[in-house]
Amino acid sequence: MVSDQNQEFAVTSVVKGQRMYLHARILASILHIPHTGIYVFEHKKWPEVESFHPNQILSVLYPNDPNVHPNMALTTNRLSVDHRLLHHLIVHQILPTGGGYAKLSRMQVFIMWCIISKIEFCFPLLILKTMVRAYSQKKSVLPYGSLLTLVFLHYHIPLDGEISTKLKKEDTYNKSTLNRMGWKKEQGMWICHPRADQAPRLAREEQEDNPPWEQDAPAPAAPVPAQTAPSSSTANLDRIMEMMQSLQAQFTSMQSSFKEDFQEIKTRVGRLEGDLRNIHSEFQHTDDAIFYDLKVTKRRLKRMERKLAQSKTIDQVEETSGDKSESDSTPES
């Protein structure tokens, strides 16, 4: 791994004997996404970026909380439906997170600010940094499985024998996604109604201790309502869902394209193997024919030599043991 500068940050690995060298520009070309924009990677403090202040985005995420501050508890149960769906997309696709989803990390909030404010962010570099961080932790699973498949195909790593996994219905973002998250549309408004089997898990996740970097200040004295009034505007939700469906269509198209290219490569390799076998067979037959012709020519020369010696045209040549082993009785072809 090389990480002198962000633009030079790269990951090297060997998979099935093939060495891969991956940096942001290569990954961006594989995924057909930009590699420009700002970049920051923090998981213990708020990112320090010009024009960004935590209170601004927190006021957007928690509009009914008058006491927002950088050290407040960041919970998802108080988010509006569009922000909740955006967070769901981030923790499952952009910045995968293990465990529960009842709380937001500061890095997740920062990414939400970038998307809401239309600030260009270097996601290829974020993907690489996230994979390195996951690899360095114990009992961790390397994220971005579907993206890694595209990377392996790019480097022509054979996937024979690997078990493929089809997209589940849960991987498609639509209204069913919101229903599974406990959101129901009533009179044109999305209202959260957690399922009975979700209540114990949500309560447990909400009682979990905050990470050390979120315990710098005591919680605000004013009680926080359990849930804000749902937003009646669906414009942001429709825009987010449209964006997610577009991303999903792009990934599906890329996977289909890579599968077709990989199948074509396998076909061509199979043809090359057949051609090599034919060439090897022809070369072996040619070699045998040349060897046989040389033996016949050698016998003919020996006979001419003996005849010339008998006619006194040349002196008698003493035959060596190797010459005597040649049989003159072998018929010429």
Detailed description of the structure:
This protein has two domains: 6-159 and 169-270, no CATH class; 271-318. It starts with 9 loop residues before the first strand and ends in a 9-residue tail after the last helix. 48% of the residues lie in helices and 6% in strands. The longest helix has 76 residues, at 235-310. The strands form two sheets. Strands 1-2 form a two-stranded antiparallel sheet. Mean pLDDT is 76; it is low at 1-5 and 205-233. Helix 1 (24-31) crosses helix 5. It has 333 residues and is mainly α. The radius of gyration is 36 Å and the shape is elongated.
How would a textbook summarize the main sheet?
Answer: 2 strands, antiparallel
Q: What are the segments in which pLDDT stays under 50 over at least 5 consecutive residues?
A: 1-5, 205-233
Beta-strand share of residues: 5-15%
Radius of gyration: 36 Å
Q: What is the average per-residue confidence, as pLDDT, rounded to a whole number?
A: 76
* Domain module tally: 2
Q: What distance separates the N and C termini?
A: 68 Å
Overall geometry comes to: elongated
Region (Disordered): 200-233, 308-333
Biased composition (Low complexity): 224-233
Pfam family, one: Transposase_32
Keywords: Membrane, Transmembrane, Transmembrane helix
List the helices and strands and how they pair.
Elements: E1 10-15, E2 18-23, H1 24-31, H2 54-61, H3 81-94, H4 106-116, H5 123-136, H6 145-154, H7 175-180, E3 183-186, E4 189-192, H8 199-207, H9 235-310, H10 321-324
Antiparallel strand pairs: 1-2, 3-4
